[in-house]
Amino acid sequence: MKKPISTFTLVSLLSLSLLSPLAFADDDIHEIEAISKELGLITLEQAKTKALAAKPGAVADVDLENRKFGKGWYYEFEIVDADGREWEVLVDAKTGAVRDVSREWF
After folding, report:
1. Contact 80, 62 (CB under 8 A)
2. Least confident of 24-33, 44-53, 63-72
3. Of residues 79, 73, 104, the one with CA closest to residue 91
4. Which of 16, 35, 39, 62 is 20 to 30 A from 2, alpha carbon to alpha carbon?
5. Mean pLDDT of the chain
6. Cβ partners under 8 Å of residue 46, min gap 6
């Protein structure tokens, strides 16, 4: 005979599954800040300000990427606008210049 899962166990498992992405996201932010400081890049907050000035909305995700072929380091922001559309904003991590604003179509 199977034992029913207790409410406490179910709530605990659900809480862990919902909170674990937040822990990973926090680790990503710390890694981005460490890399930018070590390489003398603009800060994440400075890049975020530039990205939101180019495309107002809410930041859903951010990455720091080293673009190949001499393009250097870029902050890549995913921004959701007031209409729920997703946008990608690339900010040059050395200069702070917004290099691209494009709509995510998927």
Report:
1. no
2. 24-33
3. 73
4. 16
5. 80
6. 96
CB neighbours of 53 closer than 8 A, spacing ≥ 6? 98
Dist. CA 64–CA 75, nearest whole Å: 5
Give the predicted TM-score (pTM) of the model: 0.72
- Residue 86, pLDDT score: 96
The three-state (H, E, C) secondary structure of the chain, written as one string: CCCCCCHHHHHHHHHHHHHHHHHHHHHHHHHHHHHHHHHCCCCHHHHHHHHHHHCCCEEEEEEEEEECCCCEEEEEEEEECCCCCEEEEEEECCCCCEEEEEECCC
User: What percent of the chain has a predicted confidence (pLDDT) above 70?
Assistant: 72
* Phi/psi at 8 (5° precision): -60, -45
Residue 29: both structure tokens together: 């932010």
Residues 6+ apart with CB under 8 A from 35: 41, 64
